Amino acid sequence: MFKKIPLHSQIFLGLILGLVVGLTFIFTNVPQWITLELIKPIGEIFVRALKMVAAPLVIASLICGIANLSDISKLSRMGTKTIGIYILTTTFAITIGLVTVNLLQPGKLISPKTRSDIEAKYSQDVKAKKEQAEEVKEQLVLQPLIEMVPENFVKAASENSRMLQVVFFAVLFGVALLKIPENKRSPVVAFFDGLNHVVLKIIDFIMIISPYGVFSLICTLLVEVAGDDPNKVWGILKSLGFYALTVIIGLLIMVLVVYPMLLRVFTRKNFSYKAFFKGIERALLLAFSSSSSAAALPITIECVEKEFGVSEEVSSFVLPLGATMNMDGTSLYQAVAAVFISHALGYDLSLGQQLTIVFTALLASIGSAAVPGAGLIMLLIILESIGVPSAGLALVLGPDRILDMCRTAVNVTGDATVSMIIATTEGEKLKILEDKKETVEVE
């Protein structure tokens, strides 16, 4: 009976059950070890399995995608358009975040007592993140460009946080393939094409446990947030609710206004946004539960190809690149969080300081790893760049895990949107953008 339920519905049921079981455990005082030792490992296995295939998928799909272009000029054209649109959407996201937080000003609602409670609770976490941020700050101005080139490709491929290095190598490898004779190129392309299909089949196997993985991740998240004193934690989260709402409002504007607008502008076609969400539903649920666009990448590629009709040539180039440099949700969150912390600590930011946030967040989005928590390290750098004490990071650590889930889902939505735009501008006919007689539906 359960097998007859569509996979995306199974994943959603897993998410709901995770919420119900997690809350039940919290308010019935079930010992934490039951969750941490019996339930949490399932989620960790699931996420590890997805990350396991991320590097081979990026390598195989990018190399095949570039090699199949058979034209360097087409690669250059696609690359320029893709990076340009990613920078555009990230700039939109940061601007929306700043406008929203300046209008609602949630930071001015934090009471001094709540502020001191939060700082005391998360002081150790702030210290750890500050040490990581100091390492980044000491780097050269062009260090991100240097870091893009791997010293050891095998080492880069073994760490998901170095995915940009993997992308660099794969692109270089693909371009080199285009420059060698056909009889030498064909067997290499055939190998990576076969590898790509093998990885996709492995993903099918992994997805069998996805409902259980999502259940475990959500249940564990709730129990870990509550800790030994759920009432105190919920009180802190309630006081920060308006801040979280501000971030979510900004994210909703990106999803419900900016992305549909860009699709209409670039494709000039009617489309059903409900169908768009249904098409990437599985990818969104995985991004939401894992807080990692890298972990969701295999499913995102599968969704845009099967549900929207984006060619493998486009998806295998645009989406891996997006998972490493297109962090719209993260950039918006960083803008909101920086102003929120500033207001909460009694700092009023000038126009120049807010422009600094735009520039720094834009650069940070390119260098952020596609893994949970990476945005916090970049947030510390933003705070330092505008002269706000980095200890203020403690103010946003409470609800950060939940907001991380939301902004990762927005990152994936942005990646899927850009892949459709690039595919359309390359002359592809997409299922969701076909001309229809009915009125466009944007929800």
Automatic annotation (TrEMBL):
Gene Ontology terms describing biological process: dicarboxylic acid transport; L-alpha-amino acid transmembrane transport
Keywords on record: Cell membrane, Glycoprotein, Membrane, Symport, Transmembrane, Transmembrane helix, Transport
Gene3D superfamilies tied to this protein: Sodium:dicarboxylate symporter
Molecular function GO terms recorded: symporter activity
Superkingdom of source: Bacteria
Annotated GO CC locations: plasma membrane
Residues that span the membrane, as ranges: 12-34, 54-71, 83-104, 163-181, 202-223, 243-262, 354-371, 377-397
Subcellular location: Cell membrane
Coiled coil (residue ranges): none
Membrane topology recorded in Swiss-Prot or TrEMBL: Multi-pass membrane protein
PANTHER family: AMINO ACID TRANSPORTER, SODIUM/DICARBOXYLATE SYMPORTER-RELATED
Name of this chain's protein: Glutamate:proton symporter
The species this protein was found in: Persicobacter diffluens
